[in-house]
């Protein structure tokens, strides 16, 4: 039996509760489509990705991108750091057709390997969603509840660490 990579990567648990996917999420950085748990460097994710959501026809979706490991995986005191928030994305459309509420901030991890999660919610109605006053300590669950969003429709994540790091721990 194959384990769900969102559970293995603790996206389910740290950011969202378990859900049954009802949409397909495609995230492309340049011409590279990510797979759940892809390892990318900051130089790969410097520019905003192309994101496409395929789900229920005539639906609108909200995309949240967060770093649950900020500022470092061993001390995630800023969990969850909000990197991007886009609402009113039409089904089958790219995020560029939605409303960018919080501009894309490229991942720049300074310590350890960070997970950057993309979580998609189906909106029950088109509505005005306001930008939070800060990016640190965003809470995806509270956000979804506050705006009466459905359970997550899809999610994915990448792993990212600073340029030039080897992926292992350094000992002195």
TrEMBL record:
InterPro entries: PEBP, PEBP-like_sf, PEBP_euk, Phosphatidylethanolamine-bd_CS. The lineage of its organism: Eukaryota, Viridiplantae, Streptophyta, Embryophyta, Tracheophyta. Signal peptide: none annotated. It comes from the Eukaryota. Belongs to the phosphatidylethanolamine-binding protein family. This is Uncharacterized protein. Gene3D superfamilies: PEBP-like. Pfam families: PBP (PF01161).
């Amino acid at each position: 039996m194959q384990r769900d990579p969102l559970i293995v990567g603790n996206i389910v648990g740290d950011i969202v509760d378990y859900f049954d996917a009802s949409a397909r999420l495609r995230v492309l950085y340049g011409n590279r489509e990510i797979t759940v748990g892809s390892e990318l460097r900051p130089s790969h994710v410097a520019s905003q990705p192309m994101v496409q959501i395929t789900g229920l026809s005539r639906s609108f979706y909200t995309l949240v991108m967060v770093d649950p490991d900020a500022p470092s995986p061993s001390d995630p005191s800023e969990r969850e750091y909000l990197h991007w928030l886009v609402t009113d994305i039409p089904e089958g459309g790219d995020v560029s057709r939605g409303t960018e509420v919080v501009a894309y901030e490229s991942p720049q991890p300074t310590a350890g390997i960070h997970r950057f999660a993309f979580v998609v919610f189906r909106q029950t109605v088109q509505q005005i969603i306001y930008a939070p006053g800060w990016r640190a300590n965003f809470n995806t669950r509270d956000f979804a509840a506050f705006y009466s969003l459905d359970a997550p429709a899809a999610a994915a994540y990448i792993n990212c660490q600073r340029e030039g790091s080897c992926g292992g721990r350094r000992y002195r």
